[in-house]
Design a protein that fits this description.
The chain is α+β, with helices and mostly antiparallel strands. About 30% of the residues lie in helices and about 20% in strands. About 45% of the residues are buried. The structure holds CU-O-CU linkage.
């Protein structure tokens, strides 16, 4: 009594005038008192002997030992994300969301139940899923414990240099500034999939393909980070918000399995507030923004709109392992595009669409506009517009989403302005690229031909939608 200074005494001592009963109630109400019970930590601060890693390795082994019919088994969990198995398939297989507005929310639900299963299978009931903070230069290599061939966290099929620790993620591939800068949810959730997919392709092996990626234990640490980026995006404010007024977004129900192997369902409304609803926070994130489905907007607060599109007649572009240059004949559109590009208010995007390949090419692609033919590609030059890879869409042998070609758009004001200063017919350049090896850019062989169906420019805007009520 004298030495134990519990929270209730603290509240009383600080003059909170409430009855004991109410105080107890408040203490038990997690919304009022606790942020969350579980903290997801940056793997950069952990080692192979940290309890988080020991428990995870143990759970992976235990899940791998379960019969494949058990929804908690490693193979079943991976198949919920995606599988190459011919279907009809067991409940929930192949349900991952890519290229849609459910990308962030679906993966959040998936991780939430996966985390519960790991707790059960490891016997570590305080366990929280760490995250691979890959935007940091200090974490641009695959975390060390995943590179130990004797660990259950290792898989041999990744990019050899990534597994060897000589390979690292280029900063171009992990750049999230486009997504984080977006105000409209629809734009942010689309743009975050770019760097997310680049990390998949750079790690390679199972990670490089949707139907196999969740078999690699690093998958879940990777997605923990993607999930954290959702929180970070929201926390920037400025009108950013989840599309809680969109009945289509709120209305979709997904099935997962809990730690008992029992089927459970969730909707986007169940995963808006990680701390409150799901009981976790990240060790490095600003205070979480609490979104609620009950507040109804007729429209999402921001609308992402393509104001006008300017198409170019272009024959389909094919990219193998070599740099490809394509002249863009602007013709009489030239003046208009130049004006939009030079304006400080209008945003010009270059849009590559109809992107596909027969199988995962295994490389990323840097995009430039106006890069002089005799100049080496340099992402720091004004001609660089962005990097993409195929993941989730456009890989034809992947089933599920494979038959839908991918579209990427990149802000192009700076590049087009620089390009048109030099040349009336600027060049679009696509440079197949790979991970850094010993800190230097590598020139990997592409395993498939990339097809780009169309190139256009778009003037795009984010506008505040009229709020009804
Ligand atoms: Cu559903 Cu990173 O993939």
């Amino acid at each position: 009594m004298k030495s134990s200074w519990n929270r209730r005494q603290f509240l009383v001592a600080t003059g909170v005038a409430v009855s004991a009963a109410v105080t107890e109630h408040t203490l038990l109400n997690p919304k009022r008192v606790l942020a969350a019970s579980f903290t997801r930590k940056d793997v950069g601060g952990l080692t192979a002997s940290s309890p988080e890693i020991v428990s995870y390795a143990k759970a992976v082994t235990a899940m791998q030992a379960l019969p494949a019919t058990d929804p908690r088994s490693w193979s079943y969990q991976a198949a919920i994300h995606g599988t190459l198995a011919p279907c009809p398939c067991p409940t929930s297989w192949n349900t991952c969301e890519h290229g849609t507005e459910f990308f962030w929310s679906w993966h959040r639900m998936y991780l939430y139940y996966f985390e519960k299963i790991v707790r059960r299978m490891s016997g570590d009931y305080g366990w929280a899923l760490p995250y691979w903070n890959w935007q940091l230069a200090s974490e641009n290599k695959l975390p060390l414990m995943f590179r130990d061939p004797t660990s259950s966290l290792y898989t041999a099929n990744r990019n050899t240099s990534i597994n060897a620790g000589t390979g690292s993620l280029p900063s171009t591939d992990v750049d999230c500034s486009l997504a984080l800068g977006d105000l409209a949810f629809s734009a942010a959730v689309e743009d975050i999939q770019g760097p997310h997919g680049n990390v998949h392709v750079d790690v390679g092996g199972w990670m490089g393909s949707v139907p196999t990626s969740a078999q690699d234990p690093i998958f879940y640490f990777h997605h923990s980070n993607v999930d954290r980026l959702w929180d970070i995006w929201l926390a920037q404010g400025g009108g950013r918000g989840d599309p809680v007024g969109d009945p289509a977004w709120k209305g979709k129900t997904y099935t997962f399995f809990d730690e008992n192997g029992t089927a459970v369902t969730m909707t986007d409304c169940d995963v808006l507030r990680a701390a409150q609803q799901l009981n976790y926070v990240y060790d490095s994130e600003p205070p979480q923004v609490n979104e609620y489905c009950i507040r109804i907007w007729k429209f999402p607060p921001w609308l992402w709109q393509i104001v006008q599109v300017i198409h170019f007649p272009i024959s389909p572009i094919e990219v193998n392992s070599e740099r490809v240059n394509v002249p863009i004949e602007l013709g009489e559109q030239s003046k208009r595009i130049q004006q939009i590009a030079a304006s400080s208010e209008q945003r010009l995007f270059v849009v590559l669409s109809g992107i596909e390949a027969a199988t995962q090419p295994g490389v990323t692609y840097q995009v430039y506009i106006g890069l002089p033919a005799n100049e080496p590609p340099e992402p720091k030059s004004p001609y660089y517009v962005g990097t993409f890879s195929l993941f989730g869409l456009g890989v034809r042998d992947e089933g599920h989403h494979g038959s839908t070609p991918a579209t990427y758009r990149f802000p192009a004001n700076r590049a087009v302005t620089a390009a048109l200063r030099r040349d009336e017919t600027p060049t679009l350049t696509i440079v197949p690229s790979g991970i850094l090896i010993d800190g230097k850019p590598s020139r990997p062989e592409a395993k498939a031909t990339l097809h780009i169906g169309a190139v256009s420019f778009a003037e795009a805007a984010e506008t505040r939608a009229r709020q009804t009520k």
